[in-house]
Amino acid sequence: MKTAIVILNWNGKKLLEQFLPSIVNFSSDEAEVYVADNASTDDSIHFIKQNYPSVKIIQNTTNGGYAKGYNDALQHINADIYCLLNSDIEVTQNWLTPILKVFKDEKSTAIVQPKLLDFKDKTKFEYAGAGGGFIDLYGYPYCRGRVFNHLETDNGQFNDTTTIFWASGACLFIRSEVYHHLNGFDEDYFAHQEEIDLCWRAQNEGYTIKYVGSSTVFHVGGATLQETNPHKTFLNFRNSLLNVVKNVPKQWFLFVIFSRLILDGIAGLKFILELRPIHTWAIIKAHFSFYKNFFKFLSKRRVLQKKSNYNLHTSIVWQYFGLGRKKFENLR
């Protein structure tokens, strides 16, 4: 299988200087490495050309964020497997081998994620994907090894290969034919949680999402948009609601929508009590944007709702805040 590692870059020369060496050293035997540049204004392109002539460059004409950036770039790459890799990830020796084996052995597996550990503390799982992602009853995402902001220590508890609900966009492998069949990412998301939507749609088409714990990468996280940035709060809350409108089956639709509006309001009050009102305002703006886009996403829903995969779990909010269950193994 022909594999392409595609790194999306926007003014990220410093990240490329730090992380491109491990990607080239540990990947070039099994894959071609590309940098898809989102109209950077720094000298990222010059740096790559001068120091890594083997790395292929695709220059997007605009900065369309994560979703449009990859949609534009992947039109120009001929490969069987795409690896969509953040520019702030350090890979490890032989990280590709177990993942490519899963693709070869399991034809129904369309998307794969490796183990994501924290680059800043390599004993801990990383927020963006940890040991593979899931969705709760109300559409809130969480991971094995990460529930809300609680990160578990990696003690080998997730060294397995298993089916998950969503794979992290920080390091997401996908069959190219599936990516294009699904028309790629939904560009209305711009960034954050578009990979959850993509995985949800893939499952609705009968494909499987897998986590491969024998492959490890280290993710900085927040290198492009930090956790404390209210715009990140805005995108996460809005896009999570858009995921609900677009993908939750009709028998749960109204219940989940109204429950989410209430729970998001509680989250806004929590930010006020934590003296972070700027994040409360970000949630308010997220809801206004959600209302603005509601009917647009409702029309997308009508196209997608021929079938829907929705593995119901209890509320992760109740389990975490009400029952104090912070580890994945303790969730019910």
Structural key phrases:
332 residues, alpha/beta, Spore Coat Polysaccharide Biosynthesis Protein SpsA, Chain A, ten-stranded mixed sheet, two-stranded antiparallel sheet, 10 helices, 41% helix, globular
Q: Give average pLDDT, whole number.
A: 93
Q: Give the domain tally.
A: 2
The CATH architecture assignment of the largest domain turns out to be Alpha-Beta Complex
Supply Rg. 19 Å
- Helix and strand run: EHEHEHEEHEEEEEEEEHHEHHHH
CATH fold call of the largest domain: Spore Coat Polysaccharide Biosynthesis Protein SpsA, Chain A
Tally of individual helices: 10
Distance between the termini: 39 Å
Categorize the overall geometry.
globular
Question: What's the total count of β strands?
Answer: 14
Provide the β-strand percentage band: 15-25%
Most strands sheet: 10 strands, mixed
CATH class label of the largest domain? Alpha Beta
What is the helical fraction, as a range of percent?
A: 40-55%
CATH-level-4 superfamily name of the largest domain: Spore Coat Polysaccharide Biosynthesis Protein SpsA, Chain A
Structural class: alpha/beta
Low-confidence regions: none
